[in-house]
Specification:
The protein has 227 residues and is an alpha/beta fold. It is built from seven helices and ten strands. It is globular, with a radius of gyration of 17 Å. One of its GO terms (cellular component) is plasma membrane.
Length: 227
Amino acid sequence: MSQTILSLKDVTIYQERNPILSNVNLDVKSGDFIYVIGKTGSGKSSLMKTLYADLDLTEGEGTIVDYNLNTLKESDIPYLRRKLGVVFQDFKLLPDRNVHDNLEFVLRATGWSEKEEMQVKIEEVLDKVGMKSMTAKMPHQLSGGEQQRVAIARALLNDPELILADEPTGNLDPQTSVEVMEVLKKINQNGKTIIMATHDYALLMKFPSKTLKCEDGKIFEVVQRSV
C-alpha cells in the first residue's frame, strides 16, 4: 500500500472571500503524478496555494505530508514547505546570484550550515536536472528552460515528499516545455510525488497521467481524451 501524501475531504477552496471550488475530495499517494487542468480562473492556482499554505483552509478537512491544514500555525508553515518542493511559472531565481549561490541561499535559509554538505547537495540536484555544468552562470545568462531546470533543482534541495508545480511550462516554448516535462517525469519515476497545474494540453497527450479538471466550481477526474 502506497502512503497517502495528501488528503482533502469535503474541502471548499476560496479565492479572496469567494468560494471557487467546493466539495473537493482528493487522495494522493506516494509516487503519483497528477495533472490539474482548467481554464484561467477555474481554481487551479487557488488549490495549489491552499496546499502550500498561502491560502488558509477554512472549510473541510485536509492533510498534506503529515501536516493538518486546518490547524496549521503560522510558525509551522516554513517546516511544511521544507517537505514540499514548489515550482512556479516565473522561476523566481535571485537575479544577483549565480546558479550555485541561488541554491546555497535556499539551503542556508532552511537550516543547512556545513559548506561541504551544501556543495554535495547542490551538485546532486543540478545533476538530476542536467545543469551541473552551469553553476557559475547568472540567471540572465540562462534560457527560460535552463532557469526552470534550476528552479526544479531548487525544489529538490530538501528532498521533498511532494512537488507542487504551478504552470511550470507556462513561460516556455513547446520544445522547451517538453524538455522540462521530461525532467519532471524522470524525477517522478525515481519516486517523487508530483502535482502539476497546467493549461498545456499538448503535454497531457505526450505524457499521459491521472488528470483532474477544475470546472464550474468542481474538481473531478477526466479520461485523457476528453480534456
